[in-house]
Amino acid sequence: MTIEAALAPPTTNSGSTFPPLRRRMQESGLLERRYGYYAGMIGVNLLCIGAIAAAMVVIGPSWWQLLLALPAAIFTGRTAFVGHDSGHQQIARSHRVNKLIGLIHGNMLMGMSYGWWNNKHNRHHANPNHGEKDPDVQSGALVWSKEQAGERLGGGAMNWLARHQAYLFFPMLLLEGFNLKVSSIRAMRDRSPSERIVEGTLLAVHLAGYVTFLLLVMSPLQALVFALVHNMLFGLHLGMAFAPNHKGMPAPQPGQRWDHLHRQVLTSRNVRGGVLTDWFLGGLNYQIEHHLFPSMPRANLGKAVPIVRDYCKEIGVPYVDASIVGSYREALRHLHEVGEPLRLDL
């Protein structure tokens, strides 16, 4: 049986299949908060960022600073994962505490609007892979369906991008760090006055602090190059963490209604690996479990895999996982296939 046939979505909705799985997860204790884990993880991440900054001060105005752009990008990515978890209320029971953590890690440390991104990401979770409701698969620089590709017939720069998007995907991720910052600033127009003041102030603090620090420890040209490399590597890292999770997986067709479990499991793909994979992908490699239980602490997602996988087997729902290389291969194959109408139009 082909992967496409195995993943064929159900033609009818026979009622919710999620409550029995949720009861099993509650009994397992994996939905409980992990305060010690998050306190330690956040503390270590901040110490590492501080150590990188200290090393930059010691090195001084030298092109050797560029070597530190890589660890800086990686730990900026770790900061993004903390913001992600706070947005899902994984860290604390209090919504206010989670929001505060998100604002500090998103707006102040990364220069990305926590409120804007959290709203966008929650809409993705509600309707993953839905062409009209999921902002992550709406037409933009890339197209995610043949229908979207069909809208770009006739030539032009966007047509060219879509035709070659499988080859351009990873190079384009180098721009994602800048895209997040620009989108965050543009999103301030749509925030409430109080949110605009709080988030805008924190974004300004980040920008002023980032630029000032770089200019204090290196020459203006070195600072510019470091900022470019740092943000390019950060965008690549973050994109590589999010890219394997849904691309190439099924999407609900018009008029088709899936319950929560089918909607989250059928549209998601896990990435197999070990401790290093878990660390590099920020636990997002357990995408099925994360989508089923978004408030589950990241450290518990791997432990939830056997429970979810066995339950899916019981009720006959395909549970898909792949190696990290295989997941990227599937995502790129999908991007190549949806651009086919444009290549045939040449």
Strand line-up across the major sheet: 1-2
Coarse structural class: mainly alpha
Distance between the termini: 34 Å
What coarse outline follows from CA principal-axis ratios?
Answer: globular
> Using DSSP, what is the number of strands?
2
Largest sheet: 2 strands, parallel
Assign a percent range to the helix content: 55-70%
Query: What percent of residues are in strands?
Result: under 5%
* Number of helices, counting only DSSP H or I runs of 4 residues or more: 18
- Looking at how many chains there are and whether they match, the oligomeric state comes to single chain
Helix and strand arrangement:
Layout: H1 3-6, H2 18-28, H3 35-59, H4 69-87, H5 95-110, H6 114-126, H7 146-150, H8 157-163, H9 165-173, H10 176-187, H11 193-217, H12 220-242, H13 260-266, E1 270-271, H14 275-280, H15 287-292, H16 301-315, E2 321-322, H17 324-338, H18 340-344
Helix pairs in contact: 3-4, 4-5, 4-12, 5-11, 9-12, 9-17, 11-12
